[in-house]
Amino acid sequence: MRVIRNQNLYQLTVLPSVFPVNCYIYEEEDQLTLIDAGIPSSFNGIVKLVNEIGKPLTNVVLTHGHGDHVGALDKVKQAFPDVAVSISERDSRLLRGDVSLNSDEPQTPIKGGVPKRIKTIAERKLNEGDRIGSLEVVTTPGHTPGSISLFDTKNRAIIVGDAFQTRGKIAVGGQLVRSFPFPAFATWHKEIALASAKKILALDPTLLAVGHGNMIEDPHQQIEKAIREAAEQLGNVQKGA
Predict the structure, then answer these.
(1) What domain range is 86 assigned to?
(2) Alpha carbon 110 to chain centroid distance?
């Protein structure tokens, strides 16, 4: 597993040169928070880094319920039984394998790998503005109906799950990057994802940390460019409809 540190945020990546899957450890003065749980093979690297940092892992926060973000969750919970697991109120259903839609949501089928055998139950269901230590919940649906991002209120970094990807190039969730198309294939609703991307831009983060690809410092201009390209692609699709 590759580990890259940026201030108090650690990016842990399995298969970095082939199919990068990221999870993150956020370090506070007296505790650690794991953001996403990657795939099953992420487990050993997570435990190793927690032990190396030497602070208690108190929270696991899931940006959304896809399998490549929750794959090591059960093993992490077994290894750290006192850890509190959190996910958005909406995506808590995905964690249980429930792909049903609310009546007020676009009736587009939920895509991507939805787990079927996760045993861990999230103790906390998150909504806009909730806090996990110094991390503030920002609802950023689109990739899934209940996707969230986590905004570092100290350093203004943001961890966005699959609201963006940077593998291949920076792109809004749902916009096809031919060299790494998988996040686009797994995105539920492109228009909603674009609105969430604009919400992230408005926060003017100092660091963009994504589920697939490298972290980007001072990402404002690159986020703007990705949003323009996504809007153009959606406009062209709509014109051709």
Answers:
(1) 2-240
(2) 16
